[in-house]
Design a protein that fits this description.
The chain has nine helices and six strands, in the order H-E-E-H-E-E-H-H-E-H-E-H-H-H-H. Helix 2 crosses helix 3 (about 75-85) and helix 3 packs across helix 4. It has two domains: about 10-130, 2-enoyl-CoA Hydratase, Chain A, domain 1 (Alpha-Beta Complex), CATH 3.90.226.10; about 135-180. It is globular. The protein has helices spanning about 5-25, 40-50, 75-85, 85-95, 100-105, 120-130, 135-150, 155-170, 170-180, and strands spanning about 30-35, 40, 50-55, 60, 100, 110-115. By secondary structure, it is mainly alpha-helical.
């Protein structure tokens, strides 16, 4: 039988987990979660830390931690609330019930729902699509989206303005607009 842990140990674990998931969310490149099987507890939080979530229709989601006398304390409750809204987030956390990929798609927890046979191809398609975009625009867009998730409305708008300005001043923007006018594919360099 496991012994009781200390509050300090619990806090340290929470901060460590939050830091890991924050690092994933703040990477300049888009991160795609490809979910097949179980995404429970930390696995679900790991998926939520990603920018785009693709799941097989056979995947299972949930926060069953309440059944163990704990809850998703590494930012999982807050992130879930911000992604799908408080009513559904509370129900998922408080009941500990598992739910399928179709329900996760309805809630907006996953963005693409495919068969398990199409999962790898759809994930690769999305990766190829986003890899063709400007690294500058992608990085700055992620800054703006993260600000919206993490900050007040006014602060997020200011962050968006600054991110847009940095993007607007880039060579990638010039290349993208010239390519559009010249009816050719852009050659983004990330500067």
């Amino acid at each position: 039988m496991a012994g009781a842990g200390s509050a300090d140990t619990g806090s340290a674990r929470s901060y460590l987990g939050m830091h890991l998931y924050d690092q994933i969310r703040h990477m300049p490149q888009p991160i795609i979660a490809s979910i097949n099987g179980y995404a429970l507890g930390g696995g679900m939080l790991l998926a939520m830390a990603c920018d785009v979530r693709v799941a097989a229709d056979t995947a299972t989601f949930g926060y069953p931690e309440i059944k163990l006398g704990i809850f998703p304390g590494t930012g999982g409750t807050i992130l879930l609330d911000r992604l799908i809204g408080p009513a559904n987030a509370r129900a998922i956390c408080l009941t500990g019930e598992l739910f399928g990929a179709e329900r996760a798609y309805q809630l907006g927890l996953i963005t693409h729902l495919v068969t398990k046979y199409d999962l790898a191809a759809e994930t690769a398609r999305l990766a190829d699509l986003m890899a063709g975009y400007s690294p500058v625009a992608m990085r700055e867009l992620k800054c703006a989206l993260n600000a919206s998730l993490e900050m007040s409305f006014e602060a997020a708008r200011e962050a968006e303005i600054k991110a847009h300005a940095r993007c607007f001043a880039s060579n990638d923007r010039l290349e993208g607009m010239n390519a559009f006018i010249e009816k050719r594919s852009p050659n983004f360099r990330g500067d």
